[in-house]
Amino acid sequence: MRITWKMSTSKIKLFTTAIMIISFYWFLSYILLEVWFGKVEEEEEDIIKVKVPIKMNVSLNYVVMHIDLKRTPLKLSYLETLLPMLKDNGVNSLLMEYEDMFPYEGKLVNLSAENCYKKLELKRFISTAIGSGFEIIPMVQTFGHMEYALKLSEFQHLRERPLNPDSICLRKPESMAFIRHLLEQVMDFHNAIRPLKHIHIGCDDLNHVNKCHNSSEKGCLEKTDIFLHHVKSLSDVIKSQYPDTIVLIWDDMLRGIKPDKLNYFDQSTNVQPVCWEYGVLPQISLANFFEYHEKFPHIWIASAFRGAEARTATFPELSSRYQNVFSWMNFILNHPKLKGVQKVYNFRGIILTGLSRHSHMDPPCELLPISIPSLLIHLIVIERFKSGVVIDGYNGFEEELLRNGRYVFINSKCVIDLERFDSSECKFDGQELYDLIKYFSRITLDLKEAFYDNERSLEYVEFYSQFDLINKNTLADNVNMLHKYLEEIGFFENKCASIMSKYYERDFVNEYINHKTLHLKKKIQRLLNIYKIYYNVSVWRRTPINNTYFVA
Ligand SMILES: *[C@@H]1O[C@H](CO)[C@@H](O)[C@H](O)[C@H]1NC(C)=O
Ligand SMILES: *[C@@H]1O[C@H](CO)[C@@H](O)[C@H](O)[C@H]1NC(C)=O
Ligand SMILES: *[C@@H]1O[C@H](CO)[C@@H](O)[C@H](O)[C@H]1NC(C)=O
Ligand SMILES: *[C@@H]1O[C@H](CO)[C@@H](O)[C@H](O)[C@H]1NC(C)=O
Ligand SMILES: *[C@@H]1O[C@H](CO)[C@@H](O)[C@H](O)[C@H]1NC(C)=O
């Protein structure tokens, strides 16, 4: 027994020692792993936050403002007044997305909206802009986002999918003829004023490629092949007619493409990709970038100063717009070093995208006049990176902006606090509209609460009315309050119509105001009608003996 006991004691000792040793190794390897992975994580996090203790500038020859006119007739007189401000802040090109606002002719005449620009006034504006030193880059959608044409009955048969007017079916020979026609009209119009250096042919968001041919056909081209083939044929067409015009395309269809596929483009290509990323922290693939650098003579980038939030957003979200452009600048300054490449890569230009609608069929989003502060932020950041920032760490520029824990941008006319933008501290054309729409946003918020309360009170009204137990005073209060809101909405509508008419043609002003107020007015009216029904119910009856109505 004793021996057994002794033996088991030594076994226990052995066991304990073993456990201690194992634990020690565990602990050691844990520490090592922690250090190792911690480092890896740090390195990954640092992908954008590289320290470069030298003075460097980003090279961006083109700072391009996107002017999106789709179903949104901005007054050219307003755009003209913007030019000096844009120039002062570093914009040197305008990307004109005319869509249905261009005065097409002949077979394409129905593509133009009824309130499209007249040839003469457009020509005058373009000449003025060129005279003030701007380069004009027209944009013509040539693959996706062709709703403005394919919605029409005469072009319906060119749809990739019968129910989707966004993408054109390239298998139909007629489609290519149609696109050539479209390009010709827009390019000839501009070339008559000044030969175009660049044309943007869109080609983004292609969701419905390769769907239009009949299902019994198999082994057809892949989506990327169709895309590349299309871009190649269009760029060849453009090259043959306008040999000096560079063709810009959005890059999203090139992302993640097999490198050898990019051999579609040789060094003499007239195509240059525009890498767009509108997120707070752009998800930029380094691999893609190095491929592009290899294949294309120049790369462009695009951030967004409006139209990158929700589909029906009212104001650009200033802090996310700032982060979007700041990350981009930081990325192009530092990305070659991430791969240990010493060469400094140039980027041709940056497009500041500003959508008026997410697509032709969508409701309007952030208006241009109230997005000027966001545009200014982009221009200040770009200017700082172009004129050389001392990059002693990631936050060099940011620290300069940071006041009381918030980012504040200051130029001679404007102070922009990202978190609490106060329009009274910033002089910009559009300020009055900004304030008015801000006021309306508050009404909308109040109304949301009121609707909630009213809907609850309606339940009571409906419930108590069966016992004729309605408190007419409460009812009257609610009715008065709703009438007051209707008045305020009416005030907003009138004022908004008068201010907006400085910037937009009447049809768009009406659309925008209705888009903002119609559903609210309908809701209020519905509530008022319900109240009206109960208003005449007689007052207070005796409480029923069994009180059932309290047990709702
Ligand atoms: C334009 O639309 C009108 C009305 O639908 C039609 O009568 C006309 O033929 C169309 N024009 C062309 C050039 O297709
Ligand atoms: C579909 O394609 C096949 C093979 O090309 C052809 O024989 C057939 O007629 C086509 N069907 C339709 C509806 O176009
Ligand atoms: C950066 O830009 C500034 C101002 O334009 C200029 O003085 C400086 O020489 C530039 N630095 C480099 C490295 O190009
Ligand atoms: C409520 O009563 C008034 C006066 O008796 C009457 O004029 C009105 O039409 C009634 N309204 C409804 C909705 O029944
Ligand atoms: C309570 O009283 C009401 C009205 O007198 C009557 O209709 C209902 O049936 C009664 N309920 C019960 C549970 O007694």
UniProtKB/TrEMBL annotation:
It is an enzyme of class 3 (hydrolase). The keyword Nucleotidyltransferase does not apply. Residues 112-263 form the Glycoside hydrolase family 20 catalytic domain. InterPro entries: GH, Glyco_hydro_20_cat, HEXDC-like. Keywords: Hydrolase, Membrane, Transmembrane, Transmembrane helix. Its EC number is 3.2.1.52. It catalyses: Hydrolysis of terminal non-reducing N-acetyl-D-hexosamine residues in N-acetyl-beta-D-hexosaminides. The keyword Membrane applies. The chain crosses the membrane at residues 12-33. Belongs to the glycosyl hydrolase 20 family. This is beta-N-acetylhexosaminidase. It comes from Loxostege sticticalis.
